[in-house]
Amino acid sequence: MAHDLPPLNALRAFEATARLNSVSQAAEALHVTHGAVSRQLKVLEEHLGVALFVKDGRGIKLTDAGIRLRDASFDAFDRLRGICAELSRDISEAPFVLGCSGSLLARWFIPRLGRLNADLPELRLHLSAGEGDLDPRRPGLDALLVYAEPPWPADMQVHVLAEERIGPVLSPHFAGFERLRTAPAQALLGEPLLHTTSRPQAWPTWAGKQGLDAGALQYGQAFEHLYYLLEAAVAGLGVAIAPQPLVADDLRAGRLSAPWGFSPTRAALALWVPRRAADGRAEQLAQWLRRELDSQLA
Fold first, then answer.
1. What residues contact 169, with CB distance under 8 A and at least 6 apart?
2. pLDDT for 161-208, tens place per residue?
């Protein structure tokens, strides 16, 4: 159509040339060749049907039409630069809202929050806890830190941080600790195991990895969430099962013991970021989380 705008690259080449009064300097500013700028200027003049520059000695100068377009393009590009700067500033100044389970938040994230804030002060991280009801597709969340199994959602940019490894843990205060700590994994088939209603497959998954009959497992006290389950284990109420990062601090401090180690599952701890809202802050956070997990489990 006759009233279509010229190609944006041609307008950018013109604006830079008019602002700097030099094709060579415009090429340098735009990180292209002198010939590329000249071609874009020719495209623009052909599109408009008017000459925008004429030779002036060894240089160039604007025609009357070029002066009119220069004034309009200066204003338009200045406004665009200002809006883009505002949008970038809004993103960098807005908090980055991360959703994760209350168990992960309490037992792993909060003890490391001071270090994260010191390492990434510009992130301005806000944490939102929930149990199975957090969805980064909804407004209010920028990302979700979650244990999940592939395949990953197609509308998410997924940063895989670490494979999930789970294992039984018990406290030295548990009445059966001395009997169990040197016993084979099969000894747990006779124990009333602490478990969660939020993840009933944890014990059967672990049993299968050990070659044990999951149908022979006996269950004791149930808890709604993993956080309460692990608090019960620390209190010596029985044998619980958990992902390794969530009990690593307790193992180092001697509050819990893991005599049978940890076995991998099909799941992974991952950072889910909606593709429509992905920005550099999510990548920064993913790198930090990956380093932290690697150093913790090394």
1. 230, 233, 239, 240, 241, 242, 247, 250, 251, 256, 257, 258
2. 999 999 999 999 999 999 999 999 999 998 999 999 989 999 999 999
